[in-house]
Amino acid sequence: MPRTLTVAGAQTGPIARDESRAAVVRRLIALLREAHAGGARLVVFPELALTTFFPRWWLEDQAEIDAFFEREMPGPDTRPLFEEAARLGVGFYLGYAELVEHGGIARRFNTTVLVDAAGRIIGRYRKVHLPGHRDFLPDRPYQHLEKKYFEPGDLGFPVRRAFDANVGMCICNDRRWPETYRVMGLQDVELVLVGYNTPVPSVMTPQYDHLAAFHNHLSMQAGAYQNSCFVVGVAKAGREEGSDLLAGSCIVAPSGEIIAQASTEGDEVILATCRLDLCAINKRTTFNFAAHRRTEHYGLITERTGALPPPG
Ligand code: CDT
To answer: Considering only CA atoms, which residue is closest to atom 3 of ligand 1?
Structure first.
């Protein structure tokens, strides 16, 4: 019997700043039900799936900023999603802004949780690669202030056994970094879940705006192929508070091929039945890490952060 897992990507359209958490959760529940009706056992929601993408704004009032954060998960507004998922017997990945108190100090992370089919949180990931900038950029139509609002994740890239698969998580900009996938690949990952909010035009690289969709898929397809795993990439998409967010949610097979892709910029479910045994093809051959990796030549990857020119 081949090991299979039907996963859904639950792309959302834009979330307005004044849309209540309860209203957003109702949208997520509708997507969850549709995914379940399509046979999904695991549903992937976007990064920061409960609010508008607030890092586009320079905000100074801490209470106003903290209104975008969750102090508990599930909390009163999100509990109905957990209850409905448990009732249906479906797991999910949910991205949100997390506010925790450690020793009386408030810490803020761009976080996602993995919830099992009984509605229990079984995994947590905090975004490691925070893109954008910390200071106000006066010449830009909008900002990308993740470095101001969040601190880098402190949980690494754990892979856990869940849904009969080896499952890892990352968030948005993480998907562009080969290190993200390789650290999970070294834990034998079979399924990487990633939610994203990708503003186009980009604050950082307007020169590449026409390639935004290409780079999105290129990153996830390369990560899947080079680490012999499935990748489920799920967008918050569409025109949100005057800023466009890239759509293109997709499910990528270990061959690097896209096997499901969203066709709209709104709330949309995509589905694929992942034959997890397919991961073994390249794990045993081209990308058999134990047989072929040469770690004695990879030291710079962890010794050095930024690039330096060669000597001479
Ligand atoms: N949310 C997020 O990480 N978005 C980034 C945009 C980078 S441009 C500052 C992304 O990689 O899609």
So the answer is: 173
* Span from the CA of 52 to the centroid of ligand 1 (angstroms): 14
Residue 210 has φ and ψ, to the nearest 5°, of -70, -10
Domains and CATH numbers, the chain: 4-303 (3.60.110.10)
Nearest CA to ligand 1 atom 7: 131
pTM attached to this predicted model? 0.98
Task: Kindly give the confidence (pLDDT) of every residue in the chain, 312 residues in length, as a single tens digit, with 9 standing for 90 and above.
Answer: 789 999 999 999 999 999 999 999 999 999 999 999 999 999 999 999 999 999 999 999 999 999 999 999 999 999 999 999 999 999 999 999 999 998 999 999 999 999 999 999 999 999 999 999 999 999 998 999 999 999 999 999 999 999 999 999 999 999 999 999 999 999 999 999 999 999 998 888 889 999 999 999 999 999 999 999 999 999 999 999 999 999 999 999 999 999 999 999 999 999 999 999 999 999 999 999 999 999 999 999 999 999 999 999
Distance 206 CA to ligand 1 centre (A): 12
